[in-house]
Here is the input.
Amino acid sequence: MTTLPLSGLTLIDLPRAELTLAQLEALEAQAQMPVSPKDKVIQYYLVYIYSLLRSDELAEAKFVLRRAPRNIFTHDSDELVPADPALVSATNVTTIVHALDYYDFQTFFNTANLELARLSDMDISATALKKLVQHVRDKNYNFISKAFVSTTLTDLVPFFGMDIEQIRSELLSRGWTISRQDASIILSPTKIKGIKLITNILRLTC
Here is the structure.
């Protein structure tokens, strides 16, 4: 995908361009216009919501649809219920991320997998959701690589939403090694100055 300049953007650019958050913000006025095609408006809010989530703009992601045109919602409810299934998936994921407990990433991954199963692989929302899943995994990896000198593969499952063999393969490709004493223990390629691991509990050393 190409990155386009801020000026001259339209909703038509969404499927073929990788838009920044600033560019998406600038397009919202177009999305709110009554003459804008409904399918393009739905695409816009799908991309915008997932981009906000990847940027950790959780509150904005949760409430952005309140500014959306009424014609993309069902008309038989007092609540804002999107009529499009992909947009329903986006709001479900947003709700989970917004309420996410720091140590309960498995709930997020379970929800994301459930929503991905309902979407076509070619759908723009499926692509956006996969990027969000990878974003969460990357953030968790950055945390783990700085916080742990060693840990068990089982303990890492909630942080990655993958099975143990997938996690083992991922970490080995990043330079981690399996303990010679215990195959369930994986060792970090770097040691953190001033921190040591005591029975998997990090304590600052003097």
Observations:
- Confidence is low (pLDDT under 50) at residues 1-7, 191-206.
- The chain has two domains: 1-146, 148-206.
